[in-house]
Amino acid sequence: MKKRSPWPAAVGLLLGASIVPQLSAKAREKNTARKLALWEASGPIHRLALYDHEDGIVTGVYKSPVDGLPLAFTIIEAESPAGLVQIVHGAQEHSGYYKVFAHRLAQAGFTVLLSDNRGHGDSVSADHPRAYISSIDDIVADQYALTLFFKNRYPGLPLAMFGHSFGSLIARNYIMAHDDEIDKLILTGLVCYPPQAGVGLFFGNVESFYTSPKRRGALIRMMDSKTKAALDTISNNPAFLHSFRGDDKLVNYYLNGGAMAIWDSASRLKDYGRYAVKNPDLKVLALNGTEDPLTGGAKGLADTAKTFYKLGYEDYENKIYPHMKHDLLHENASEIVIWDIIRFLKN
């Protein structure tokens, strides 16, 4: 009797073992959508604690509608606001990097909401440590809830969202379902669509599922050298780079869940079926430096513009700054960028 080859069974087991983590990721996405829908149906109820409100600065925590994680936030109020700006910070950093910028916007007549993304700054807990992100869907849900809280506190004012780097990815995932909540979108350090993100996400989900999303697996460790090298592409400002490296609240290395959330957010950029496009009149301003590798250069910026146009966002403007790197707000000539943003907000 001819022996059966063990290979078909082995291949089947391998395929099954790799598919289960992808199904688990989809289940997490659906679970977040379900919790957010229940929260919206209930009111929604804004659960927060204000720590201080003095001299036009409000500080506190807002409990996420997804899991109750306390999200640290600061509001910097303008005396007679003409509008609102919600800032979404980038990878590794926290909202503190944007306080000087927020005060400038407030002086120009815009009340600003700053918050620490989950797993960053002070938006951490024993169950949700720094460098861990439960999912990109959870971050988007957090920012959406903060939008409603912000607009409810200061009603009748137009709202712009500002997102830098990973924050630009969060903002682009945000508009998939919530573009009708904002009037303008400002993106800096715009990350281009990386075709390889889906592959990294697939294998990363496998590793994360069979180890833990709160650990640093082998695949994530392989990316650490690239993260270190990326520090040299942030800014031409040595004083800022020194302070950045010395920040004890900085995320030095992402855990599996953190890296997966970033890759997932990038892999969805061209998943056109996710975009409801409820506000095609959304005004979009993209600002980038010529020395920023994350934009993908002229080709990547053109591809990003085509994506917005294809979705139906025709009011899209891209501005490029010669010799500047990734973090435009912390460049030597950041004043030029800030004035361009203020003009866009006032227009």
TrEMBL record:
It comes from the Bacteria. Keywords: Hydrolase. Residues 80-332 form the Serine aminopeptidase S33 domain. One of its GO terms (molecular function) is hydrolase activity. InterPro entries: AB_hydrolase_fold, Hydrolase_4, MAG_DAG_Lipase. Pfam families: Hydrolase_4. The keyword Hydrolase applies. This is Alpha/beta hydrolase. The lineage of its organism: Bacteria, Bacillati, Bacillota, Tissierellia, Tissierellales.
